[in-house]
């Protein structure tokens, strides 16, 4: 393509994004995977973990639609840190605190808090093997990944869990997340035949504080990132399923390389949404020249 591409650079806890506003330039909604991968390239493009394309919403309940592309040009169904960045961007544009975002057909409520943080209600977990999706029927609380573990001489503390929170995740409870070679194991699980759509992979360990956990994430299509919002939600739900946190699941902190997120059920009764709270930051605006 020729000409210039205007963009906005943002990040949530170091999980960084290039925002393209297709509401003002419809052509930005039709960029090819090759062009998106070029934009995501940290050496030859702008560089980011994901590209976020803003579109006019079809759902009248939403203020904006966001489409997520990974830095390799593939598409993702949702992204929690991106949702907070989009919420902050649109809230300032519209001069209001409450924002709704259409993410792959699901409307996510968000609010800018008085302390400057952003809270987004993420979708609750789906644990059916067809919905993850998995290649075959199996127990989503005990995934058959022994071939990966044997290859890499690695064993989690509990059986790996599969959870879909709008995108697929595999959560591993480990002794010390900082000691895991997530580049090798994360990549192997992401591309494992059990996951036909690939998967994000979470490495989760306890800390001295029973309400605080260490989390590292290998993101599908992006690799190891400093933070992952949907990964934090998946880890929170996995802990709840494993009964590693109190029944209400309130007040849990996820410590990632880029900082912390707060997780709690948005509705203690229904438990069909998780409130994820954390920062969002505007880095700069710019133009990318012809590709």
- Overall outline: globular
The share of residues in extended strands comes to 35-45%
Question: What pattern of helices and strands is seen along the backbone?
Answer: EEHEEEHEEEHEEHEEEHEEEE
Task: Tell me how many strands there are.
Answer: 17
Oligomeric description of these chains: single chain
Helix content bin: 10-25%
Cα-based radius of gyration, to the nearest Å? 18 Å
Calculate the terminal CA-CA distance, rounded to whole Å: 6 Å
What does this 3D model show about the protein?
The chain is built from five helices and 17 strands. By secondary structure, the chain is α+β, with helices and mostly antiparallel strands. It has a 17-stranded mixed sheet that branches. A hairpin with a 7-residue loop joins strand 15 (259-265) and strand 16. The mean pLDDT is 94.
Keywords:
alpha+beta, single chain, 17-stranded mixed sheet, 291 residues, globular
Task: Itemize the secondary structure elements and their pairings.
Blueprint: E1 5-12, E2 15-21, H1 33-40, E3 50-55, E4 64-70, E5 75-76, H2 80-94, E6 98-103, E7 106-112, E8 118-123, H3 146-152, E9 161-164, E10 168-173, H4 182-190, E11 200-206, E12 212-219, E13 223-225, H5 229-241, E14 252-256, E15 259-265, E16 273-278, E17 281-288
Parallel strand pairs: 2-3, 4-6, 10-11, 12-14
Antiparallel strand pairs: 1-2, 1-17, 3-4, 4-5, 6-7, 7-8, 8-16, 9-10, 11-12, 12-13, 14-15, 15-16
